[in-house]
Amino acid sequence: MISLNPSYLSSFWSQPMVEVNLLIFMNLAGALVLGLLVGYERSYHGRAAGMRTYGIVCMASAALTVFCGYPGFWWGGSMHSAVPIDPSRVIQGIVTGVGFLGAGVIMKEGLNISGLTTAASIWASCAIGVLVGIGFFGAAILLTVLLVTLMMWGPKLEARLPSRRAMGVVLGFTPGFEPQESELKSTIKQWGYMVAEGSLSISASQHTTQWNFVMVALKSRPEPNSLFELSRQLREVDGVDSLQISHARN
């Protein structure tokens, strides 16, 4: 058993430990940048998982992987030889359990998905705890700062970058009216939108028909751009009796 004496505590901030933490810093920062790039591509195309989700997951994955390359520095380099178990197996169980916890906060309501970023941040907080538990305090602090910064400023960055908006639409038609898919798609295209491939679903009763689909903007600033204007124009489409419209992503 190691006593909490000043010599043992200072080993966590020795020059070799600081150098290892700096290397982990660069790994985390690089993973964050790459995750943001992939997330922006998804965000641009109106997908539910955007920059924050991909950035958090990529960064946390790096954190849970990179420390395995420095076993000699675990717990300040003082306890590795005395550990009778493989810590990576414990960490594997932690990550799996927290993954189920994160899945519980993801909610899907119609075409809207919420909770993805929260689930990713829960998983990332698991990585922070693992880094602290293994003794990489500097890397844990950096991961925390990067995570909080991304959560706070990620939405503002996404809002400034060009993206293609996606709307979930439910159209109910008047009894006896038979809508034409080609006409509806042509009308929507004139507004600068398109019906996403594979998103159209149709439900019908004896007298009425209802269409559910996602319409995606063909450019970053289509006209009409607001939900209010879109809802007004959709209500003016021939045969439309009822309408429900909302953003089709979190």
Instruction: Provide the domain count.
Output: 2
- What integer is the average pLDDT? 76
Strand content: 15-25%
The main pleated sheet reads as: 5 strands, antiparallel
The total of helices stands at 8
Proportion of residues in helical segments: 40-55%
Please provide the ordered H/E string of secondary-structure elements.
HHHHEEHHEHEEEHE
Q: Radius of gyration, Cα only, in angstroms?
A: 25 Å
Q: Termini, distance in Å?
A: 49 Å
Which class of secondary structure composition applies to the elements? alpha+beta
The general outline is elongated
- Count the E strands: 7
Written overview of the protein:
The chain has 250 residues and is α+β, with helices and mostly antiparallel strands. The protein folds into two domains: 6-160, no CATH class; 166-247, ACT domain (Alpha-Beta Plaits), CATH 3.30.70. It has eight helices and seven strands, in the order H-H-H-H-E-E-H-H-E-H-E-E-E-H-E. The chain has helices spanning 6-10, 15-44, 51-66, 87-103, 116-134, 137-160, 181-190, 227-235; strands at 107-109, 112-114, 166-173, 193-195, 201-204, 209-217, 240-247. The strands form two sheets. Strands 3, 4, 5, 6 and 7 form a five-stranded antiparallel β-sheet that branches. Strands 1-2 form a two-stranded antiparallel ribbon. Strand 5 and strand 6 (209-217) form a beta hairpin. Helix 2 runs parallel beside helix 6 and helix 4 packs antiparallel against helix 5. The two termini are 49 Å apart.
